[in-house]
Design goal:
Elements (H helix, E strand, L loop, with lengths): L1 H13 L2 E8 L1 E8 L14 E3 L1 E3 L2 E9 L9 E16 L4 E7 L16 E8 L7 E6 L1 H9 L7 E6 L5 E6 L11 E9 L3 H11 L1
Antiparallel strand pairs: 1-12, 2-5, 3-11, 4-5, 5-10, 6-9, 6-11, 6-12, 7-8, 7-10
Helix pairs in contact: 1-3
């Protein structure tokens, strides 16, 4: 009888997972521009992130997240990158596209001429956001790759494709004075935990 109860408790444990949601701020972020190839965070400074096209200039954003606050062994079920769009310049054309950064970089020194390589192993296509609104992008595949160790976590390279003329959103960066409008990575994960009923069965089975 005790053996049966212990087995029942064990199987109950296997299927008892608690869903948790964590918000992670960037460990670093920056934007670069081909028209100022030797400048870090040109055209507005460190409060802004742009990716798209402004006239003949191409803006790119780099953003990295530290996942160390997610418990080892957790099962990640969803991850969304959220950026607050403070303004949109021009009209919609093409679409934003996102890649894995393949090399280390430093937000204080990265420029268009020194930018890290990026990979198309994982690619996510987004949409152009509205001004004065949150932009949310599903980056679950990226986060799963980093968390599992199948890809090194150097962050996301924010690009654009098929854009014509001016088409670029401006987002607040992690340096913006209003902390509530800074970028965030919202990760939902499940972690196995011992429920009260499982504890009760274990206790009964061992008595």
């Amino acid at each position: 009888m005790k053996t049966s109860l212990l087995l029942l408790a064990f199987y109950s444990l296997l299927f008892c997972a608690a869903a948790e949601v964590i918000e992670i701020v960037p460990s670093q972020d920056a934007y670069i521009c081909c028209c100022k190839p030797d400048s870090t965070n040109p055209n507005g400074g460190e409060n802004y992130l742009y990716h798209g096209q402004f006239g003949s200039c191409y803006d790119r954003t780099l953003i990295q997240w530290d996942l160390s606050d997610i418990p080892a062994g957790a099962t990640i079920t969803d991850a969304d990158m959220k950026l607050y769009c403070e303004a949109f310049y021009g009209s919609h054309s093409g679409e934003p596209v996102y890649y894995l950064i393949e090399e280390s970089w430093d937000e204080l020194n990265v420029t268009f001429n020194t930018q890290p390589d990026y990979s198309s192993v994982i690619t996510t296509v987004g949409y152009w956001p509205d001004a004065e609104a949150w932009y949310s992008l599903d980056v679950t595949e990226f986060v799963l790759a980093w968390f599992s160790g199948s890809e090194e976590n150097y962050g996301v390279y924010c690009h654009s494709q098929n854009t014509t003329g001016t088409c670029v959103p401006g987002f607040w960066s992690s340096n913006y004075v209003n902390e509530t409008l800074r970028p965030k990575l919202v990760v939902t994960y499940e972690e196995l935990e011992l429920s009260g009923s499982t504890w009760a069965m274990l206790k009964t089975g061992l008595e």
